[in-house]
Amino acid sequence: MLGFMCSCWGQCNSNHSRGMVKLERDLRPSHFLLKIQSYSLLVDSHMESYESDIFEAGGYKWRLVFYPSRKNHGSEIGTNYISLYLRIAEFDTFPPDWEVNVCFKLYVQDQKRDKYFTIQDAAREVKRFHALKTESGFPNFLSVDTLKDPSKGYLVNDCCVFGAEVFVVQCTGKSESFSMIKPRFRTKTFTWKIENFAASKEYLESKTFEVGGRSWKLAVYPKGNSVAKDCVSLYLRLDDSNNLPTKEKVYATFKLRIRDQKHSKHFERTAYQWFHGKSKCWGFSEFISLKNVNNASKRYIMNDTLVVEVEFMAVSATTVSSQVKQLEQKLGIAEIVEMERDLRPSHFLLKIQSYSSLLDNHMQSYESNIFEAGGYKWRLVFYPSGKNQISGSGTNHISLYLRIAEFDTFPPDWEVNVCFKLYVQDQTRDKYFTIQDAAREVKRFHALKTESGFPNFLSLYTFKDPSKGYLVNDCCVFGAEVFVVQCTQMSESFSLVKTPYGTFTWKIENFAASKEYLESETFEVGRRSWKLSVYPKGDSRTKDCVSLYLRLDDSNNLPTKEKVYATFKLRIRDQKHSKHFERTASHWFHAESKGWGFGEFISLKDVNDGSKGYIVNDTLVVQVEIMAVSATTSTTLTSQVKQDHN
Fold first, then answer.
1. Spatial distance between the Cα atoms of 45 and 40, rounded to a whole number of angstroms
2. What is the CATH number of domain 173-178+318-475?
3. Is the pLDDT reported for residue 534 higher than 80?
4. For residue 7, what are the contacts with CB-CB under 8 A and spacing of at least 6?
5. What is the pTM of this model?
């Protein structure tokens, strides 16, 4: 099971969470892991932020950005926090008005218990990335005190681990409208007179008639069908079942009747049934015994005519539509978290247009048509009186479940990990109320567990409360968003390595006659190759100064996009009094930024001042002391949580 912890910052009430929400889980973040192996060195180096290598999710490229001291720490807001952000990358080729809607979560690992602590913005969970806003995240991700608290396990041996899951919400939304039509239509009863009943064939079929926008027939076996003897078998048949869209069903509540033609003491039985392509008819093989039919006192047969009738109490009407939208997704948290939003659920909408008729017709559940999300097929299942009502332990709640469909061709050990949310619409304010299980946020579907959801989705009292807007004119609207957690996870380990032998000294002889540009021999520090470069009379941007730079010599050999961070001191030695002149720098070195230093490191006037001892015997001694160098490794883990069933 996924363990959980829940807490909340900001304002909360019983219906909606604001601020930020947190929870823990066992499952690793599915898209990216970043390991910082030397947090204290990173802080000491005054590195404002660490930007990870690129990882891919949802068809886009991203970076995780870690601020060891709170981003925007110059503001009046508390600064004693670490910050964590998601940044979109390589968007230069996007069209001018590009926009990406994203639902993401950022994590820190509890290394002692091997759990992942997630934090999410409850107020505006779906983030919109565009040209003017290329990153989003949490300035107050964790307080430094919490990070350093040994009991939390977030910082162990100066190492901390962060993660990201990124879901780009761009999908085909499907909606379905289901209603139980109480027959306002003119004809809700069809009557069929069967003449010459005694000599009738083994099987009789009525003419076609229409009720509730559907075509029907009655079918009679005058002497019983293959499973019944000495009885009349009577059935209702959906005549246009072959014309139904794939997987569509029609629910009907009806009475089958044999009329008493004299006393009106008719014989009837009530039925409830889903009609579809594989179940075209429903009725009773032993509807009534032939003995009773032929009993003259009951007047079922007069003049060798039997009158058969069907009366419809309700017929469902289902319409399905698809629409392409870029929408948002929401992940709530609390033991069961409830939040509202304006945007429609992005994968499926189910409209129940006659809730009371579902109850009146004793429909235990309504199973929607199939919709697709994440490469799988699903159904939304609504229990108007609660799922537990079926087992006799009624809960006074409605239940809502997600069910995986068409898994017969999956391999025997199939498994699908899913993050989903179910919604109900507040129709008076046009908002969508979502509920989610925080304790087990990622659900595991497999052969023994093909559905998951909420038995106590809403109490009937709340559901029927007019002020809530969930049930309006006997109509309610539910929705679903389904994200299959299937990805290639990339992990990155970043560390700053102290370099106790990280000093290189370069003696430049004949300094007065030196060239415009000088370069030292190559030296190694932190498993990297470096050089010093000097412009004795200043580089192209300066005059009357010595320009001094540290250069990463193997930058051309770095893997694509890899960077090396270094904290170092550049120094000109005082060869008489050891009062050296030095300046400190920190920099990310990479293929496009091979060197870093100071164009105006020291003035030539000071260098040539004999009292300062910088030049002795026309020799200038230049030095670099590298205090820390980063080491970054990246690995890719393919997580095949979705079985290949094609």
1. 9
2. 2.60.210.10
3. yes
4. 21, 22
5. 0.52
